[in-house]
Specification:
Layout: H1 2-11, H2 14-31, H3 44-49, H4 55-58, H5 68-86, H6 93-114, H7 120-134, E1 139-142, E2 146-149, H8 153-164, H9 168-194, H10 209-215, E3 236-237
Length: 243
């Protein structure tokens, strides 16, 4: 059984595996009191004046203590990150890493002005937004309650996140994070998918050759797609019609 788990774990594509594992281990370390959230949160003053550079990364890894909100976020992170990596980014790991870098940098700039401490939820919304815009014809079913087209999924998640907030402060923070995720996701989608196809447009987001050298490798012939690649993860989705 342990061998089977290990085999399945390493079948997860590398970016999804790395990010999801880092998030789970960070939360476990906080839960076991090895570290505290105060060592992780985004603080520009500590980053610049005390050179605590790790906060640029750890602010994307912590989703709060173990509970429903944490499980909800990890599930959506894993499913939609993996579906992107196995779908439109399959065989293009360097481009996927570059999207991570683009999103992380823009959200960090957002964090300088928005007074937010953890950016992981915004990053998940960004991933969901990009996936939803690249699958516009898929119909979603949100826990059997709502039916809608895939492009509405980020907005549904925003509303659900607000419902999870138990105070005005928490709800305001959730709104800021969701808005940042949607905004950054739309920036990436527009620059990568829309603008290059416009009259006079051109591709502005160019993946550095260094990333291609580091990450792009031949596809493993024994690689297996996630079953939910043609399903909707936590959300059910109908088959996308083909013209």
């Amino acid at each position: 059984m342990a061998h089977s788990f290990t085999q399945e774990y390493f079948q997860i594509p590398v970016v999804t595996r790395t990010y999801t594992t880092a998030c789970v281990l960070t939360t476990a370390a906080v839960q076991l009191e090895v570290i505290t959230p105060f060592q992780l949160y985004f603080n520009p003053d500590l980053i610049i004046r005390r050179y605590q550079i790790w906060r640029l990364i750890t602010s994307f890894l912590f989703f709060g203590s173990l509970g429903f909100s944490f499980v909800f976020n990890i599930i959506f992170l894993y499913r939609y990150c993996r579906m992107l990596e196995e779908g439109c980014f399959r065989g293009r790991t360097a481009d996927f890493v570059f999207m991570f870098l683009f999103g992380g940098i823009v959200m960090t700039l957002f964090g300088l002005f928005a007074n937010v401490f953890f950016l992981g939820q915004a990053f998940i919304i960004m991933l969901v937004y990009v996936w939803s815009r690249r699958h516009p014809l898929i119909r979603m079913n949100f826990f059997g309650l709502l039916n809608f087209q895939a492009p509405f999924l980020p907005w549904v998640l925003m509303g659900f996140s607000l419902l999870l907030g138990n105070s005005i402060v928490t709800q305001t923070n959730m709104f800021r994070l969701a808005s940042a995720g949607i905004s950054v996701g739309h920036m990436y989608y527009f620059l990568e998918d829309v603008f290059p196809n416009q009259p006079g447009g051109r591709k502005l987001l160019m993946t550095p050759e260094l990333l291609r050298t580091m990450f792009d490798r031949p596809q493993d012939p024994d690689y297996h797609l996630l079953q939910e690649q043609q399903q909707g993860g936590d959300l059910q989705q109908d088959e996308e019609p083909h013209n």
